[in-house]
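WARN  no MSA supplied for this record, continuing single-sequence
INFO  ligand: adenosine monophosphate
INFO  echoing inputs
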Amino acid sequence: MNFKELGLIEPILRALDTQGYKQPTPIQEQAIPILLQKKDLLGCAQTGTGKTAAFTLPIIQHLHAEVDQNQKRQVKALVITPTRELALQIEENVAAYARHTKLRHAVIFGGVKQGAQTRRLAQGVDFLVATPGRLLDLIGQGFITLKHIKYFVLDEADQMLDMGFIHDIKKVIKQLPTNRQSLFFSATMAPAIVKLSQQILGKPERVTIKPEQTTAEKVEQSVYMVAKADKIKLLSQLIKNKSVDSSLVFSRTKHGANKVVKKLDQAGIKAEAIHGNKSQNARVKALEGFKAGKINVLVATDIAARGIDVEELDLVINYDLPNVAETYVHRIGRTGRANASGEAISFCDAEERSYLKQIEKLINTQLRVVKDHQFVDSRPDLPPAKKTNNQRRSPKPKRKVSRKPSN
Ligand code: AMP
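INFO  complex generated
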């Protein structure tokens, strides 16, 4: 199956050719025909599967046919997504895929001054990508109306709930016209997510892309048993020995991420941290430096890493193992994207062994244990460390609404 056979039009096919996409990914193959028929969609898929193109391409195609260039532009398509990085990344994709159309697109997110965003809105926008807080702010100030929305996408719904955006989302939904096409994406389908999807979607078609299909098979995975105190030495050694161009290191906490960067720096390795305590500018700068190859190692927390879209990420290192097994799949999905293969290395200390067991159960694979390294820790398993607040994951509907990611 190629993109033409999916029913996409020539200006989009040309853009995909420029992007170098040869074949649709499984989610694109399944979702695009459904969406071109203007049906609602419930998609269970994570970032890294090609889902952004799966939902933006059909919307671009609809808008291309409908938008009257002589009329004042109204926002007709809206994507809401939890983080600034994701919002930027989606809009970047829209810009690339719509380059041969006359569509106007914009992205809005918090943490920066609103002037540039409102100026762009005033010029007229067809396709808007937004984070929930800034969207509501600008609606409140009269810069945006949702009255003309025909296409609505809620992206990364599970992350939205985790970040306490549920009330914001409900406020947005209330303002949408009932006659619209709605798309809902989530990596997981916990009961709270399903409930939310029912409030947004009519009778949706469903598409499920299992993470195993997209990552585990393509990513070479291994684990190093190592004492907590030796992790930093092992990390420096691995990065130096492997001499990879770009690696993403995951830390469970913001403080941990900063510490790792400091130590790598001392070891002469150029690294930057990316997490919610960094300003938007610092995050964008770090990401650009990384993409340009000026920085070889990016150390990120899970939420901040969601939006990192780097074509050739060679290596993912789990400096800390996540205490939620699905997060492991999200993390290793950062490498081995689309057609590339990748490598994922995990560090596991005595307290993290139970997390490792949960991960292996989820992915139905036993990770290869690397035994020939200098810092092997063969102590018996210890019970996991007590969870801190920011490690707890389950959505708490009563939690205070926070508009800025805290991690
Ligand atoms: P996403 O899951 O939307 O974040 O996409 C993951 C990555 O795959 C992005 O870097 C896309 O540019 C890339 N991508 C999406 N679709 C394709 C395709 N059909 N062929 C090659 N790369 C793709």
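Confidence is low (pLDDT under 50) at residues 387-407.
INFO  checksum written, moving to next record
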